[in-house]
Amino acid sequence: MPSSGATRTVRYDLGNEAFHLPQTGEPVELTGVVHYPADLGTGRHPLIVMMHGWHETCADRKADAARTAAQGSGDDAAYEAASAKLFAWPCASGTPVLPSERGYDYLGRRLAAQGFVVVSVGANGINASSVTGDDNAATRADLINRHLRMWQELSSNGKGELAGKFTDPATGVARRVGFAHHVDMGDVGIMGHSRAGAGVTWQAADSHREQWPKGVDVKAVAAVAPAYNVMTEDMSNYTITKTPFATFRGTCDGQVGGEAFSFAADAAKGNRSGFYRFAIHGANHNYFNTQWSPQSRQVAAADDATPVKGHPGQCTDREDAAPARQLTEPQQRHVAATYLGAFFRRCLLGDTRQDQVLTGARHPDASITEVDVTTAAH
User: Residue 73, class by beta-carbon neighbours within 10 Å (0-12 exposed, 13-18 middle, 19+ buried)?
Assistant: First the structure.
């Protein structure tokens, strides 16, 4: 529904071990940062749930330095010991949690200004767990459904686990927010980055719709630089034919190859609601998340693009894609926010005013990127 553009932010934290993976029993946090319209008005707002992918879980600077030194010296034992500290869960006493869920604040604020309630959830426990491959995607889907269940109860009657649990992200002071009857759980979008891109594809798959909490209907799914298990033996776990599905990948992605596009296309075969595939020229993997990007000065932040020798400012991916001028961090996020915003507005609000973006038009700043659309069913 319409929004004034002003937004607010709260967070909730039910504990670092509030959820346990169904497959292994390993602990996972139930935490999220919420961006929402400052004036919720009298109606209901679509909900968008975002999840980060695989990354270090603990901001241990000494361990990070030790790992870098071990890598340089070839000391495998020291490297593994340092990595264990960086991927611990819960983190050691006195070691800050690496808040990957805050890496999409730029996107959450922009979407909230357009009328959405947006929650970016933490998945550090999954990153520190033993689950891999398809099981990793399944656990991320389980965690998304867990959050959706809590939001469904809060929205329907103002009660449940989230009631009274919202705080100011900066001060920790309790904040009262009237989300009850103002969140439309029948109009939900989900976005996953990296391994969470596989997780949201799994969650929205036709074969897993019965696992959605009662009263929840996912109307749009977006996979950003998705890291799929391409050795999967059962594509039905990822096949989406009933829900609009968009996937994005940068041509300078140093972690996810072109198989992200081919896998997503296979998952979308027979999709009757719309499949959108965007190649963002000059984008890498990490800049979609501010916490993973160098300007944050966060532990383990890095530029994963491959530079082109003899061509400063040019980049490619690990498959030697055609060189492109690398986007800056703000440029890459501007592109992501533009296309994700247009996708979610169309699918959740019925707003077709930006359809030219979704059907292949170049980004307004044409020198930044080109966008390729392979299929767009309307």
Answer: exposed
Q: What's this model's pTM, rounded to 2 decimal places? A: 0.95
Mean pLDDT in residue range 181-195? 98
What is the edge-to-edge ordering of all strands in the sheet holding 306-307? Answer: 306-307, 314-316, 324-325
Amino acid at 308: V
Residues 6+ apart with CB under 8 A from 73: none
C-alpha to C-alpha distance for 253 and 224, rounded to whole angstroms: 11
Q: What is the pLDDT of residue 3?
A: 52
Question: For residue 227, which of 195, 268, 199 has the smallest C-alpha distance?
Answer: 195
Q: What is the dihedral of CA 287, 290, 294, 297, to 10 degrees?
A: -170
Residue 17: partners with Cβ closer than 8 Å, 6 or more residues away? 27, 28, 29, 90, 125
For 324, the enclosing helix (H) or strand (E) is: strand 324-325
Share above pLDDT 90 across residues of the chain, in percent, rounded to a whole number: 87
> And the tokens for 36?
């929402």
What is the distance, to the nearest Å, from the Cα of residue 292 to the centroid of all Cα atoms in its chain?
12
What is the C-alpha end-to-end distance of the chain, expressed in Å?
22
264 CB burial (10 A radius; 0-12, 13-18, 19+): buried
Mean pLDDT along residues 348-376:
61
Residues 30 and 162: beta-carbon distance below 8 Å: no
What's the CA gap between 254 and 307, in Å, rounded? 10
pLDDT average, residue stretch 211-239: 97
Answer whether 316's CB lies under 8 Å from 265's CB. Answer: no
- Tally the residues of the chain: 378
For residue 10, what is the enclosing H or E element? strand 7-13
The average pLDDT across 4-31 equals 95
